[in-house]
Design goal:
alpha/beta; eight-stranded parallel β-sheet; five-stranded antiparallel β-sheet; 16 helices; about 25% helix; disordered N terminus
Length: about 550
């Protein structure tokens, strides 16, 4: 059994971490927006679920131009979500329940309302205040053109012009100006931020957009269109580490500096990188003298195919082991279509087109989606390394693809001129009860509308119900804690086509049938199955995972 106690500095290597999107988790004051007191009130749900840590998406002061990732103060709590006292109470309750606490840190950019950026606007061109951000004169006879062809993740140019004629860089929304990580004051301020939250008892950090902090700002600034693509698409077409603003080699200096801060605490603070870069480059962020872990998005993006999954799993484990890290696995988060819907989409489906159709083109069979989601979860939890769960997946929640356009909050919708629907469908507030104006989310309504179908997925509807998705997660996490040892697996030879099977060093096995027909069940004692076994227990049904002793 892995030692996940606070005494073990390596607790994170095999942990199960539960992501909370605070605005959609639980609303204690009834204003329709989730808050920290709501999180505290529901921590017993996470303890009963059996997770090891809770990761909170941003709860900092923000105008919500990007769901809280536009931060106006990195060392405070948004008053709509609570106070620092509420945060301290939440951490204390989490620790009392045996849960670690991980918080999001957003170092690439601030909100345009941040005091630093407001000062930069007031002081004007050439001021020291502008040096903390990336301001630049424009191209063209009168500076009327953006300085480069760099593109925003949310669509359009990554440059916004201000009234005095200069332009500032925003790789995300215009309300999120990029910081200049070549500036000593920026680096010093984030050291202060890391210590601030660590001193308040935070056990670790999830680093947002970890690959984008450092930019090549040498003159003249470089376009990326010359290689036939812009943004992250160019990463595969440029020599590693040479992209002008993504995954530059010098970004690792930042994280080596942060590691000194993490290791000054006992136990050391942990960190995980959100780095959308190819696998070999991603592993660099997870080196022991840097962040220690990096999210494995290749696994999330792999289709429901045995050979593809095997290749990604093997490659991910090899990349992590090569740098002394543990692997990470994730199926859903606040930025992607929930896997209970995504895994039911036909291969090659354009997810944005599907969202724009309200989830009708193509139609998704919810039973197929849930069956595959349950099988995928048991497969993920059997893998060596850390598993990251997203709030509501333990209920089997599907994507809310049919949100009306007029209620959308994600800036992607407006930024792309209503071309991309955005991420609101995975951020709809959770259902806790089968009745009420927001199904137990709060005393009032919810900031995004919940479908009536949520009643059947509510915690109250599944608690104690044999075979429910909630009880499957609880059982799987309880068993995982008992079974899990080591960080290796051995692939089973001669498996039928479409079947993924491996043994763990402890002698237990995981078998997943990704086909549409039953396959013979291998010998052994059945510990847990994602769906009832077929043929009177002699066969593994379609889209089903089983754990065998």
């Amino acid at each position: 059994m892995p030692d996940l106690s606070s005494r073990n500095p390596d607790w994170w290597r095999q942990a199960v971490v539960y992501q909370v999107y605070p605005r959609s988790f639980a609303d204690a004051d009834g204003d329709g927006l989730g808050d920290l007191r709501g999180v505290t009130d529901r921590l017993t749900h996470l303890a009963a679920l059996g997770v090891d840590a809770v990761w909170l998406s941003p709860f900092y002061p923000s105008e919500l131009a990007d769901g809280g990732y536009d931060v106006a103060d990195h060392r405070d709590v948004d008053p709509r979500l609570g106070t620092l006292d509420d945060f301290d109470a939440m951490v204390a309750e989490a620790h009392r329940l045996g849960l670690k606490v991980i918080v999001d840190i957003v170092p690439n950019h601030t909100s345009h309302l941040h005091p630093w950026f407001q000062e930069a606007l007031r002081r004007g061109p050439g001021s020291a205040a502008r040096e903390r951000y990336v301001f630049h004169d424009g191209r063209g006879a009168h500076g009327e053109l953006p300085p480069t062809d760099w593109q925003s993740v949310f669509g359009g140019s990554a440059w916004r012009r201000v009234p005095d004629g200069q332009w500032y860089l925003h790789l995300f929304a215009a309300e999120q100006p990029d910081l200049n990580w070549g500036h000593d004051e920026v680096r010093a301020d984030f050291r202060t931020t890391l210590r601030f939250w660590s001193d308040r008892g935070v056990d670790g950090f999830r680093v947002d957009v970890a690959h984008a902090l450092t930019k090549d700002l040498t003159e003249p600034l470089r376009d990326v269109g010359a290689v036939g693509a812009t943004g992250e698409e160019a990463l595969d077409r440029l020599p590693p580490g040479s992209h002008p603003y993504y995954d530059r080699d010098e970004v690792h200096e930042v994280y080596r500096d942060w590691r000194k801060i993490f290791d000054a605490y006992s136990p050391p603070r942990t960190a995980v990188a959100e780095a959308w870069v190819p696998g070999a480059r991603r592993a660099l962020y997870a080196r022991p003298d840097e962040l220690g872990q990096a999210f494995n998005f290749e696994y999330l993006q792999t289709g429901w195919d045995a050979e593809e999954l095997r290749a990604v799993i093997a490659g991910s484990l090899a990349a992590a082991h090569a740098v002394g890290a543990s692997a990470t696995w994730v199926l859903s988060n606040h930025d992607v279509v929930r896997h209970a819907s995504r895994l039911a989409l036909p291969p090659g489906t354009d997810e944005n087109t599907w969202l724009l159709s309200g989830g009708h083109a193509p139609a998704v069979d919810p039973d197929t989606g849930l069956r595959r989601a349950r099988a995928a979860t048991l497969l993920m939890l059997a893998l060596p390394g850390s598993s990251y769960l997203y709030q509501g997946e333990e209920l089997g929640l599907p994507e809310v693809a049919d949100l009306p356009f007029e209620v959308l909050q994600d800036p992607v919708w407006e930024q792309t001129g209503h071309v991309r629907k955005g991420r609101d469908g995975c951020r709809v507030p959770l259902p806790w009860a089968t009745t009420g104006p927001s199904y137990g989310f709060g005393a009032g309504g919810a900031w995004l509308p919940q479908p009536t179908s949520f009643a059947a997925y509510a915690v109250a509807a599944q608690d104690g119900v044999t075979g429910s998705t909630l009880e499957l997660y609880r059982t799987a996490l309880r068993l995982r804690r008992k079974l899990l040892e080591g960080e290796d697996l051995t692939w089973t030879r001669d498996t039928p086509p479409g079947v993924l099977a491996f043994a763990r060093s402890e002698g237990w096995r995981c078998v997943t049938n990704l086909t549409g027909a039953p396959v013979p069940l291998p010998p052994g004692e059945t510990l847990l199955s994602s769906a009832p076994l077929a043929d009177d227990g002699r066969a593994l049904g379609p889209d089903t995972t089983v754990w065998l002793a």
